[in-house]
Amino acid sequence: MTRFYLTTAIDYANGDPHLGHAYEKVGADAIARYRRLRGDEVHFLIGMDEHGHKVAQAADEEGVPPQQFVDRITGKFQETWRRLAITNDQFIRTTDPAHKAGVRSLIERVFARNPDDLYEKAYEGWYCVGCELFKRDDEIENGKCVLHQTRTLVWTEERNWFFRLTKYQDFVRRLLEERPQFLQPESRRNEILALLDRGLEDISISRARLAWAVPFPRPLSTGEQQGTWVWFDALPNYLTATGYPEPGYERRWPAQLHVIGKDITRLHCVVWPAQLEAAGLPLPERVWAHGFAYFKGERFSKSAGVALDLDEAIARYGPDAFRYFLLREIPFDADGNFTWERFEDRYTADLADAFGNLASRVLAMLERYRGGRVPEVGRSGDLDRAAEACVARYVAAMDGFLLHRGAQAAWDLVSEANAFVERRAPWALAKSGDDAALDATLAALARALVRIAVLSSPFIPAAAARLWDALGLSALPDSRAPSWDWIERPHVAGIQTRRIAPLFPKLERAAI
Ligand SMILES: [Zn+2]
Predict the structure, then answer these.
(1) What is the CATH number of the domain that holds 475?
(2) Cα–ligand 1 centroid distance for 126 (angstroms)
(3) Distance 230 CA to ligand 1 centre (A)
(4) How far, in Å, is the centroid of ligand 1 from the Cα of 133?
(5) Is residue 427 part of a domain?
(6) How far is the CA of 135 from the centre of ligand 1 (A)?
(7) What is the pLDDT of residue 301?
(8) Does the predicted TM-score (pTM) go above 0.90?
């Protein structure tokens, strides 16, 4: 079996989960589910980034200790992921003692292997608490961080530990040139190459007066103990989650895929590889940087009333519909918008009319004309050939993490099957008594439904499972859930199906 260790960015615990968090988790979950379908041994990690100034500030504003604050926020995130049927195998929190020990061990490993890489320096500059980064002049606009126009930059003068990132400039360039798939999509890779052209700077990796942090393993020469910069604590979560530095972590590390947002490629594709190389550890295989999900032109809730209420969006048509909409509507390699109007349209057209209606009518016809039993017709026909073309497009898209195209390929098969029903008109065949033609038609539709249940399962897992069940497959040995074997050999003859209640019932259009 092929190992597939997959991670998402850990979410920063200073507020409630929002659309952007959900989009990334649902996307990574669809990849994890797809890899499992293909037979990979998947390990799917998500988690929370719980340290840093922003968290300490937010806890302070609420008047609670930081640990109590992050416990509550993390609980909310976990509840949301349960609702959205995220199938993570592990959930890491950077306040876990094992993670903190792992971070300190990783830094000590750099001290041991490349002692010149870590050094002390007095530093001054504009610091953005939003980014937890010192900002260069070209990253400042109107006296504020270009990414955080609502936050005030803080002029900061302090003595810190520094990481000699400049030493790894050529290493990172070679990495991106020799392994172009390391960072995808291509546009993101070009951004990092351009950043390298402008030149890297060494980065400060410890902070004075940062109590809510992993203590930096060594004090400054002045004796001052500082906190580890939050990103030097956060990035290693992917490694510490494997048990590092305890023996056996190599069985899982390196990761096959980091799924992240396009705004943190510099950290994942420059700082993280350099940090690992300095420690003499293998690099992850790939980083996929997805775009942003916007709602009314905003990424985050900046003011009340503007934000998409996640709970409301999930409740509107259920978790499957929300998952499907995000992944179909917002390209996984670009930006996109959540709008209630598009959500309503896709729910009605793609889920209720196309998918749900196909499942209902085919299962109803099987019951009406053949008592639910799929006729023994082994020959494949034009619908099977159409299905094979859809499957080929689906595989190409999903292997390349283009989830929106994967969803489209699956729904292309739904359209093909609906058109086949209209073309063959099984009700007319039944009326005319052409039993052989009716058998062939019903068997072809059953094969299509089986394939559709498999292909759609990464997007709408609950509905796919209900369809699987109604097709009588969950009752067969070794077929409890959709599996790829059924794509290649949809051996449906003789299976006992039953009618199904509407998978996506039509609701009255909400007043928006
Ligand atoms: Zn910023």
Answers:
(1) 1.10.730.10
(2) 10
(3) 14
(4) 7
(5) yes
(6) 8
(7) 54
(8) yes
